[in-house]
Amino acid sequence: MQDNLKADLTAFFRAHADQTYTVEDISDALHYHGSAAFKLIVQELAQLERDGLVQVTDRGHFQLDPSQKVLTGIFHGNDKGFGFVAYDENKVEPDAYIAPDNTMRALNGDTVKIEIVRAGDPRTGKGPEGKVTEIVERHYEQVVGEFMQTDDDAGYVGQVRLTDKKLLKYKFYITAVGLKPTPGEVVTAEITEYPNDAHPDAMVGIAKQVIGSVDDPGIDILQIVYQHNIPAEFPEDVMQAADEIPDHVLPEEMQGREDVTNQNLVTIDGESSKDLDDAVTAWKLPNGNYHLGVHIADVSHYVTPGSLIDKEAYKRGTSVYLTDRVIPMLPRRLSNGICSLNEGELRLCMSCDMEIDPEGNVVKHRIHPSVMRSKARMTYTAVNQILEAHDAVTMDRYKELVPMFEDMGDLHRILLKHRKNRGAIDFDDREAEIIVDDKGHAIDVKLRTRGLAERMIESFMLAANETVAEHYFRAKVPFLYRVHETPDGDRVRSFFEFLTAFGINVKGDPNHLRPKMMQGILKQVAGKPEEAMVSVMMLRSLKQARYSDQSLGHFGLGAEFYTHFTSPIRRYPDTMVHRMIHYYEDHGINDASKQVFAPVLEEIGVHTSEMERRAIDAERDTNDMKMAEYMADHVGEEFDAVVSSVMKFGMFVELPNTIEGLIHISRMQDDYYEYVEKYLALVGRNTRRTYRIGQAIRVKVIHVDKEQSEIDFELLNPEDAPVSDLLPHREHRSRGGGRFGNNRNNQHGNGGHNGGNGGNRNHRNGGNGGNRNNGGAGHRNTNNNNTHRSSDHRGNAGNNHRNSNHSGGQHRNSQNGNRH
Fold first, then answer.
1. Which residues of 212-223 are buried (b: 16+ CB within 10 A; e: fewer)?
2. Which helix H or strand E contains 143, and what residues bound it?
3. DSSP track, 62-125
4. At a CB cut-off of 8 Å and minimum separation 6, what does 216 contact?
5. pLDDT, tens digit, for every residue of 619-647?
6. Which among 482, 465, 594 is positioned nearest to 549, based on CA atoms?
7. Residue 586, exposed/middle/buried by CB under 10 A (0-12, 13-18, 19+)?
């Protein structure tokens, strides 16, 4: 009862914002009766008063606090005109439904103020209803698309054809002010008029820039770049500033740095990587411990505070890694030149030397500036050939380094065991590698493999990040951390309930979660068909990793302290961390030095977290689009697949290479299928054929929409499906609507199917194309996966991980969510 009571009370007061009530009134209205229920209501009201949600009148009655009458949140629009507003940052209160007449014509993503006009009913799952009272901030400031001229231009010079799914219902007219594009050119346009009563289904704007032609190779990805407002080019003055930086280390720059050029330092990266920002070395010590040296490019030496390059790097926040290109945070003269730890070249770096005992504990460490020279530019492939395949040719080529690599492998296994013992969560990290031809067209999608070398570098980077974070936390100085907080109890409880569909009952309190509990769940499903989906749902139950000036720990890693130290070429927070290390070493730790960074770190954390999210969204959109492009060449072909999620409107399926699409329920014509929420299953009413998560099936590609990144499949061989008794027993069944299920297209809110899949581009991110309350496997958590898996140790972007030209770089910046 108590679990629902807070939600009941909150919804009740929001729906009756101007009225006052006694405890008895509230008890009657909510149908909570009896002395025990009365006592709980009193206790919860007291808590709500402390939380500032309700207040007590002079007469002892309760009413909504005036500050709570207007709520602010993000509007999520549906193409049918209605929407939802997420106003509770903690995701405890359900989103408010906004009817079409109450949206004030807000666009998807707008920040709005709302009033609740009708309370929800948590017992039936029905959320509250609200109305928009003000549009606080617009999500869309510009649009990108093909310029065209038609017979329906309403007196304007032409239109921009919009491809953004959330804007498809609108026309976009270009005024005579600004550029006069030629039909077929792809342009950016600034919005000057949003939908209003005069033109409810149209916007007006000014053409600002021509970015190419619709037939140009790669224009599809470039449109995504501009849609996300990612700077595609560096300003001229920034490029000039970069050109003024020497391309070699000057003698005076080596002063005050430790010379480690005599050590066997090597870089280990993907074959096509060009921005090499970390080098490693290791050896066994006489006392049985290991020395691990992690040496990182000293970007902060060249990117000085307040400089043009610094301001541009901060603005970008991160490099963005897309299928066939990288949009770097720094000009390439720096990222691929003086800041890259190229073989044989003298380079400035920031070093973290660690002594690690056989149990994986860092017993000693030093953090210091240094100067180094890489002995070898190693690849993951070559190191795997040495450590896994024991290839004689490769081992002979690098015979002087082989003993060190073997020590590294041993040290990695020690560190891995140490992390597992403390409860670090090891997610299923299958990632797709998209191969494109010289024109940018997707020609293959395959699973990326991660060998011992990739995991070894991951272990070393994690160790350095943790060591640096703990050092400066213990020093009690302002610092920038990478945090991943313990998840909310309510979200974990929902995840535990989801697990019961697979017969998994988790012991433990969701409000006091420990990483080992999650680790235990993954062990239970390891190797089973549902493993991938359980991993995805677990990710959605967790919070989003972010940057903060407070050390709040890293839940996913089971780490008490964590920062980002190891990738300053592609992440601004790492550059900032290096800058602070330098400053504290040069000026000491005192009140004056602490005040240099304390006022700005919170803002830096917020901004860089937002820029990371922007990069993730662009990478995901690019991958989804390229996967659809690849599948468009395979329409009519058959594939093996597994059911990855089951919804009221159908089921999402995943191919072995991670490509995902929808089998809409209208295409399941062998029976009338009903959704059984308790078991997350679709069950045929007559045949009892059953489809559940993890089930192997055979499918055919029947439709692909590249622009909307939608792939539709058809189910083959339904007679092979298992049967079950999962359908609830009914005395009298209604058979209305025809013999089989093809009348169900819109019965369950398919998110705007309209001949496509109604939004399967969002499913892998936790959405379902608009059906926000379908009771399926996670309906709106679009931002909570992709937050903390294993590649966050080295970088934060890109399906191609490191400047690879066809998403072939290795596991440093994984796209599908591997970000610690």
1. eebeeebebbbb
2. strand 142-148
3. EEE-GGGSSEEEEEEE-TTS-EEEE--TTS-SPPEEE-GGGSTTPPTT-EEEEEEEE--BTTTT
4. 186, 222
5. 999 999 999 999 999 999 999 999 999 99
6. 482
7. exposed
